[in-house]
Amino acid sequence: MKNLVKITAMFMFFNLALLISAAGTNNENERKPYIVYMGELPERSGRKTMEDDHHDILSDAIGDERIARESKIYSYHRSFNGFAARLLPHEATYLSKKEGVVSVFPNTIQKLQTTRSWDFLGLSDEIGKTKRNLKVESNLIIGVLDTGIYVESPSFNDIGFGPPPPKWKGKCARAANFTGCNNKVIGAQYFNLAGSPIDLLTPVDVEGHGTHTASTAAGNSVRGANLYGLAKGTARGAVPSARVAAYKVCWSMGCQDMDMLAAFDAAIADGVDVISVSIGGPSRIYFEDSMAIGAFHAMKKGIMTVCAAGNYGPDTATVQNVAPWMFTAGATSMDRQFETDVTLGNGMRAKGISINTFSSKKHMFSLTSGTLAANSSSGGASYRNASACEEESLSKKQVKGKIVYCLGSNGQDSTISENRGAGVIMSGDDNYSDEVAFSFLIPATVVNQKDGKKIEKYINSTRVAKGTIHKSRTTNIANAPFIASFSSRGPQSISMNILKPDIAAPGLSILAAYSPLVTLTGDSTDNRFTLYNIISGTSMSTPHVAGAIAYVKSFHPAWSPSAIKSALMTTATPMKVKPMEAELATGAGQINPTKALDPGLIYEMNPGSYIRFLCKEGYNNTMIRIITGGKHLHDCSTLRARGFDGLNYPSMHIQLSQNSTKFSASFFRSVTNVGSGKSEYEAKVMPPPGVSVNVEPKKLVFERPHQKRAFKVVVKGKFGEDENQVLSGSLEWRDSSHRVRSPILICKSLYQP
Ligand SMILES: *[C@@H]1O[C@H](CO)[C@@H](O)[C@H](O)[C@H]1NC(C)=O
Ligand SMILES: *[C@@H]1O[C@H](CO)[C@@H](O)[C@H](O)[C@H]1NC(C)=O
Ligand SMILES: *[C@@H]1O[C@H](CO)[C@@H](O)[C@H](O)[C@H]1NC(C)=O
Ligand SMILES: *[C@@H]1O[C@H](CO)[C@@H](O)[C@H](O)[C@H]1NC(C)=O
Ligand SMILES: *[C@@H]1O[C@H](CO)[C@@H](O)[C@H](O)[C@H]1NC(C)=O
Ligand SMILES: *[C@@H]1O[C@H](CO)[C@@H](O)[C@H](O)[C@H]1NC(C)=O
Ligand SMILES: *[C@@H]1O[C@H](CO)[C@@H](O)[C@H](O)[C@H]1NC(C)=O
């Protein structure tokens, strides 16, 4: 099924290529959108002054006031300083050297991190069983940057909700066919600065993804939610009483940097408490990356941004959204799988995986294979692979009304559907084929290769082969939770010694609200529309983490974003993993929101911590001053971050250069007591095999709450000749009722120096 994911990615890439060529990339004389990022807001700045300032800078670079006026796209002025403009390459270079400019980077297009179709429920159930703090919860606002929202969904009904919290400064856009916000969805705006010619400018979700993610974080409790009878249960966000503010930044062509930055600029100023962004793209250095910039300014205002780790696993070194001020989420399975069985005319029954809403009523259809149904006279198309049921390779006559067996699982449902087939049985390509359950246009299932062979043998053995594909049923998975194969793995390439992803949360086959303005599969030939759908991706993990943050915040409103992140990380459940991946796949482990309410100790980081960290990462004073604003003169020579990684991060990570074998690193950490008064914690080290981990002191004594205690962790060891490239261990601070756990991970770098 990995292939299907890749196909989706290829399709999106194709879209992207189209857009880029339409924008005329090859023409040096054509202006392209760039973002000119200018750091913190100037002091005592008004919108007008900033816009004038942006215009002056642009006029200077372009040398023509009229062209400058036409080229300017947008001024960011509410939460940080900068603008988007259409520039020629030399103008971009000129601007990047100007005083006050941090960076100038091209407007790239990022993608939603969904794999189209999966399901889940657990986290919300778990939260529902425990206490909640409704009064505070209903004042929390979750900002979701996504494809917009379907406000009419039962998940966003506002019965029982009072007016928006007084701190709310956001807006509800007026647009065609948009009925407006309510007291649950208190904000809905859209950002489409380039003015897409094919999308209707409205915050309404015509894709489904934004409705799904927003309801996962904060949807109402809705009983009996299901997809055509599948996965029937209660659909519920992590914080059902919280409010939602939707910022539509993704359109049919993808999600553009300049739109995402505009949404961050708005959301931070609007007063959201958490920002959830299920979008990703290749990692870039922090201040040429719209999400890292947006999340940085959110962090400075006490707002945590949760981002998707990406869907590029199981390969290592694929993680995205890696800035330490972001919370990066990988995807885990639930204990539930969707099984779609096949029965053959000879009585054989095979298990398959898919989400099949169609009921065959046990009717037996004629059964054939792509090999047997090949169109022998397809002329120019004869290079197509009929066994794999490639487009234009099959004879319509041979396919019509039949179930077709195809090699591989590349989403052949569309080809079989076009040829009026009755269904399709695909055979998995690899070891991950039994993991992701997708929805298809027609009755369909994916069987493993062994069963596939048996099915094909039966087809070959008789002229009257028959079979049926049953409606899906849910089954339990014994080894859950496990990390999803598609979930992107570390190590990361930007800050080599910060472990990413940070945490793992459910992202496989998640049931949540959907937009009935799009078909179940998103395909226009599909005629199924649904209020709830089952989809998968790190896109789905992200709002689980955002919801969990809001949940913890509803009990600890004064905690900083880093405190809440620490609480969620140090109380996460370590997961069973392949030795070669370990925490590179899971981060601290599977999120456990209720446990995070009482973490005992927290690792705090404030804006100053990140400044020191950036100094250590090589950013100079000029840069630091622009990013942080002129109010405080930051001087990197006096702001030395201590220790190996330079941050008080709740995990410890060493990424060794390729040829080194020996390593030695000192991590300086401090923890704050958030438990009840007096307590004594002891260090319990689970060292990676063959590695020495020395903690000093080994005991931390606290007399009262909010006290801080510092300690040092020295990690020493070496890699043997044929040893694994990953060494995994942990440090736990234990008192009678808490275990404050941090992973310690050492790996060899996969990046060339
Ligand atoms: C509003 O929706 C209706 C029905 O779906 C559609 O026919 C109409 O074109 C839409 N209006 C606009 C302005 O797109
Ligand atoms: C076989 O392929 C040829 C050439 O593409 C096409 O004209 C013909 O209709 C196809 N036959 C069937 C039975 O699909
Ligand atoms: C056709 O595709 C299948 C499945 O991907 C593959 O195993 C087979 O080798 C391919 N055949 C040809 C002739 O390319
Ligand atoms: C599947 O797993 C087996 C055993 O772990 C391994 O030997 C094989 O190479 C894997 N196949 C693929 C296609 O990854
Ligand atoms: C079924 O028959 C086709 C065509 O003769 C052949 O290519 C294929 O290998 C056979 N499959 C099995 C499993 O016997
Ligand atoms: C600071 O860094 C920027 C970007 O790397 C560079 O352009 C600038 O010249 C540096 N300034 C100083 C004072 O080194
Ligand atoms: C690492 O080792 C490889 C192969 O042994 C060698 O080609 C390369 O130059 C080495 N790199 C460094 C940085 O020493």
TrEMBL record:
Keywords: Hydrolase, Protease, Serine protease, Signal. The active site is at residues 146, 209, 539. One of its GO terms (biological process) is proteolysis. Residues 138-575 form the Peptidase S8/S53 domain. Residues 34-112 form the Inhibitor I9 domain. It comes from the Eukaryota. GO terms for molecular function: serine-type endopeptidase activity. Belongs to the peptidase S8 family. This is Uncharacterized protein. It comes from Daucus carota subsp. sativus (Carrot).
